[in-house]
Amino acid sequence: MVIMMKHEPKDCWVNGYNPDLLRAWNANMDIQFILDKFSCIMYMMSYVAKPEHEMTEFLNSVIRDVKKSNVNERDEMKQIMQAYAKHREVIGQESVARVCSLPLKKCSCTVIFIQTDEDGLKMSLPLSRLKDMGPDEEDVWMSGLPEKYKNRLATGDFNDMCLADFASGCRVLYGRQTEGANAIPLQNDKGFIQKRTKGKSAIIRFTRFSEKKLPEKFYRRLLKLYFPHRTDDELKSEYHPTYEDFYNRGRGGSVKQYVDFNRK
């Protein structure tokens, strides 16, 4: 079944559109009602996986040549990837953008990813510094945003600030930026930060966990983002050894109220 929009004869060549979206999009649009989920999926996938017969034949020849050479799987995938990147077809707009070094995407707001998982990815110190460390040294990781948050100032608004507010309202300074008048030093020589200007708060992103399937990771994320702390040990207690229990019953129930207020 297909819904046909009623048109006046003079509008027979006008696509379906929405006035509000048209002002925001400022380009051609052709809107249709979706009645069949499967047809919608097929329509989108046909755009994502447009057939490129010449590219398929070229990649098959590259794969055959690579199989004949004595290379490992990593180098094999690297050669195939380079062949695809250098020979794939691109539209005129993308060609112009790449030749002129124009950004293919941009955002008016800064986006910050916050690591909340205990087993999250970490960056090690440079090899030049690791060589000078002893074999029993444990502090071999670079300080990320959570570590800088834990070493924030203990005065003013910083003391009661949660990690989400810290990441959204402050930015980390590097190099000569640390010499600016608005640079704020962190404790324990963990670097410098600067408060973002009003109206320029960053958008925070984080890994989402299922409350039913992974309750501990779910509640750790809530506490990590929205409960002020200086160490991870403060996200639990002796009487509330799990993140879920500490969230629901910690400090007489005030932890949940604090987290929910900051989250809102």
Relevant terms:
264 residues; mainly alpha; 4 domains; three-stranded antiparallel sheet; two-stranded parallel ribbon; 5 strands; 39% helix; extended; PIF1_helicase
Write up what this structure looks like.
- With 264 residues, the chain is mainly α.
- It has 4 domains: 9-48, no CATH class; 53-99, no CATH class; 111-121 and 140-206, no CATH class; 215-263, no CATH class.
- Helices cover 39% and strands 7% of the residues.
- The chain contains 11 helices and 5 strands, in the order αααααβαααββββααα.
- The chain has helices spanning 19-25, 37-48, 53-68, 73-87, 92-99, 127-130, 145-150, 163-169, 215-226, 243-249, 254-263, and strands spanning 111-114, 170-173, 184-185, 192-195, 203-206.
- The strands form 2 sheets. It has a 3-stranded antiparallel sheet. Strands 1-5 form a two-stranded parallel ribbon.
- α3 runs antiparallel to α4 (73-87) and α10 (243-249) packs across α11.
- The radius of gyration is 27 Å and the shape is extended.
- The relative contact order is 0.07.
Sheet with the most strands, sense and barrel status = 3 strands, antiparallel
Q: Write down the domain tally.
A: 4
Give the termini separation. Answer: 43 Å
* Principal-axes shape call: extended
What is the helical fraction, as a range of percent? 25-40%
The fraction of residues in strands falls at: 5-15%
Helices, by number, come to 11
The string of secondary-structure elements, in order, is: HHHHHEHHHEEEEHHH
* Average pLDDT: 89
Structural class by secondary-structure content: mainly alpha
- The unreliable regions are none
Number of strands: 5
Based on CA atoms alone, the radius of gyration comes out at 27 Å
Looking across the biggest beta sheet, what order are the strands in? Answer: 2-4-3
